[in-house]
Amino acid sequence: ENAFGFSHGSPSEEINRGEDLEFIIDINLENTLRGVEKTIYLEKLIQCQRCNGLGAEPGSNLKECFSCRGKGHVQQIKKTIFGQVTRDVLCPECKGEGRTPEKSCNVCRGDGRLVGEDEIKISIPAGIDTGQTIKIPNKGEPGRRGSKPGDLYVKIKVKVHPFFKRKGDDLYTFMAIPFSMATMGGEIDIKTLDGKELSLKISQATQTGKVLKISGRGVPHFGGY
């Protein structure tokens, strides 16, 4: 009962639930500024279009399983040195569903699923970073014969940028300046990650390795500002 989740003779809804899937997607550092929508194509089990995932040939219905009488589980009796032990086990005929097709679908052979390609649109929010995961409910593999589908987990990998390095929500870049400017001071134009130009003031006697800060030009905080 604990192993299969049976409760008061009813089969668990999780028995034939579809598998969860994981997919790794690469994005550019620029995409973390405002978010981006990506379209992926996954080869996985998809719902059979002929039977709409029920596993029954069109025109036929699902009937009560003869073996378990619709319960989804049957009693198994084993003889041990302590006597007979009775326990509930998953029905091998209907796999815990309690129903079987009157006539199995000619395409999916009664499973309700077959291998195919699924197009999935993913909205990636601003501020996301490498290693973070987006959960897309019900976009994993469909369950057997119309059972609950699994979820899709999209793991993010941000590509290395040639000029900017990210640390948390801050961005760092390296700028070489003439010795005369480091000594006397001045202004230089720099490009931000979103392609805009800013003027940055260089103070007199600026040493190599000094970090100058421009507020509000980093990456938006994931889930906030």
Overview of the structural elements:
It contains two helices and 13 strands, in the order βαββββββββββαββ. With 225 residues, it is mostly beta strands. A three-stranded mixed beta sheet has the order 1-9-8, with no helix packed on it. A two-stranded antiparallel ribbon has the order 2-7.
Please specify the SSE layout and strand pairing.
Layout: E1 21-27, H1 31-34, E2 36-47, E3 62-64, E4 73-80, E5 83-90, E6 99-101, E7 113-124, E8 133-136, E9 152-158, E10 164-167, E11 170-173, H2 179-184, E12 186-191, E13 197-202
Features:
mainly beta, 2 helices, 225 residues
What is the structure about, briefly put?
This protein is mainly β.
Give helix and strand order, one letter per element, not per position: EHEEEEEEEEEEHEE
Total beta-strand segments: 13
Which overall shape is indicated by the principal axes computed on the Cα atoms?
elongated
Largest sheet: 3 strands, mixed
Q: Give me the Rg, rounded.
A: 29 Å
Q: Biggest sheet: strands side by side, in what order?
A: 1-9-8
